[in-house]
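Session log. Operator J.P. requested a structure for one protein chain; no other inputs attached. Running the standard single-chain path with C-alpha coordinate output.
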Amino acid sequence: MSEDTQLSVLTLTSREYEAQLIVDALHEKGIHAEKAGGPADDFQVGVPGQVKVLVETAQLEEALAAFDEIRDEAEHIDWSHVDVGEPEE
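Structure written below.
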Protein backbone atom coordinates (compact mmCIF):
# COMPACT_ATOMS: atom_id res chain seq x y z
CA MET A 1 0.00 0.00 0.00
CA SER A 2 1.23 3.47 -0.73
CA GLU A 3 1.92 6.00 2.00
CA ASP A 4 -1.08 8.10 0.87
CA THR A 5 -3.54 5.23 1.31
CA GLN A 6 -6.08 5.68 4.11
CA LEU A 7 -6.27 2.59 6.33
CA SER A 8 -9.01 1.35 8.62
CA VAL A 9 -8.92 -1.33 11.30
CA LEU A 10 -10.87 -4.38 10.18
CA THR A 11 -10.33 -6.38 13.38
CA LEU A 12 -7.99 -6.92 16.32
CA THR A 13 -6.41 -10.21 17.33
CA SER A 14 -4.36 -11.20 20.33
CA ARG A 15 -1.90 -13.26 18.29
CA GLU A 16 0.25 -12.23 15.35
CA TYR A 17 -0.26 -15.54 13.52
CA GLU A 18 -4.05 -15.05 13.63
CA ALA A 19 -3.68 -11.62 12.07
CA GLN A 20 -1.40 -13.05 9.37
CA LEU A 21 -3.92 -15.81 8.57
CA ILE A 22 -6.64 -13.17 8.15
CA VAL A 23 -4.38 -11.00 5.97
CA ASP A 24 -3.52 -14.00 3.78
CA ALA A 25 -7.18 -15.02 3.43
CA LEU A 26 -8.14 -11.45 2.51
CA HIS A 27 -5.37 -11.35 -0.11
CA GLU A 28 -6.82 -14.54 -1.64
CA LYS A 29 -10.14 -12.67 -1.99
CA GLY A 30 -8.46 -9.68 -3.65
CA ILE A 31 -8.45 -7.40 -0.59
CA HIS A 32 -5.25 -5.50 0.20
CA ALA A 33 -4.54 -5.93 3.92
CA GLU A 34 -1.67 -5.75 6.38
CA LYS A 35 -1.09 -6.32 10.07
CA ALA A 36 0.34 -3.88 12.59
CA GLY A 37 1.08 -3.83 16.29
CA GLY A 38 2.65 -7.24 16.78
CA PRO A 39 5.83 -7.88 18.73
CA ALA A 40 7.85 -7.90 15.50
CA ASP A 41 6.97 -4.26 14.75
CA ASP A 42 9.73 -1.76 15.47
CA PHE A 43 7.30 0.80 16.82
CA GLN A 44 4.13 -0.32 18.56
CA VAL A 45 1.16 1.92 19.15
CA GLY A 46 -1.95 0.86 21.01
CA VAL A 47 -2.74 -1.82 23.51
CA PRO A 48 0.10 -4.31 24.05
CA GLY A 49 -0.84 -7.78 22.90
CA GLN A 50 -3.23 -6.60 20.19
CA VAL A 51 -2.46 -6.95 16.51
CA LYS A 52 -4.50 -4.87 14.06
CA VAL A 53 -5.61 -6.09 10.67
CA LEU A 54 -5.69 -3.02 8.45
CA VAL A 55 -7.40 -2.59 5.09
CA GLU A 56 -7.69 0.30 2.67
CA THR A 57 -10.61 2.47 3.79
CA ALA A 58 -11.97 2.39 0.23
CA GLN A 59 -12.22 -1.42 0.52
CA LEU A 60 -13.58 -1.55 4.08
CA GLU A 61 -17.13 -2.67 3.18
CA GLU A 62 -15.79 -5.30 0.79
CA ALA A 63 -13.28 -6.42 3.44
CA LEU A 64 -15.99 -6.74 6.09
CA ALA A 65 -18.05 -8.95 3.78
CA ALA A 66 -14.98 -11.04 2.90
CA PHE A 67 -14.06 -11.37 6.59
CA ASP A 68 -17.58 -12.65 7.34
CA GLU A 69 -17.16 -15.24 4.56
CA ILE A 70 -13.75 -16.27 5.94
CA ARG A 71 -15.16 -16.78 9.44
CA ASP A 72 -18.14 -18.70 8.08
CA GLU A 73 -15.85 -20.98 6.04
CA ALA A 74 -13.65 -21.61 9.08
CA GLU A 75 -16.64 -22.61 11.21
CA HIS A 76 -17.63 -25.30 8.71
CA ILE A 77 -14.30 -27.14 8.51
CA ASP A 78 -14.78 -30.80 9.35
CA TRP A 79 -11.51 -31.46 11.17
CA SER A 80 -12.16 -35.21 11.17
CA HIS A 81 -11.41 -35.12 7.42
CA VAL A 82 -8.31 -32.91 7.61
CA ASP A 83 -4.87 -34.53 7.65
CA VAL A 84 -2.86 -32.47 10.13
CA GLY A 85 0.10 -34.83 10.06
CA GLU A 86 1.77 -36.74 12.84
CA PRO A 87 2.60 -35.09 16.19
CA GLU A 88 6.21 -34.05 16.60
CA GLU A 89 8.14 -35.62 19.45
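Operator note: The mean pLDDT is 85.
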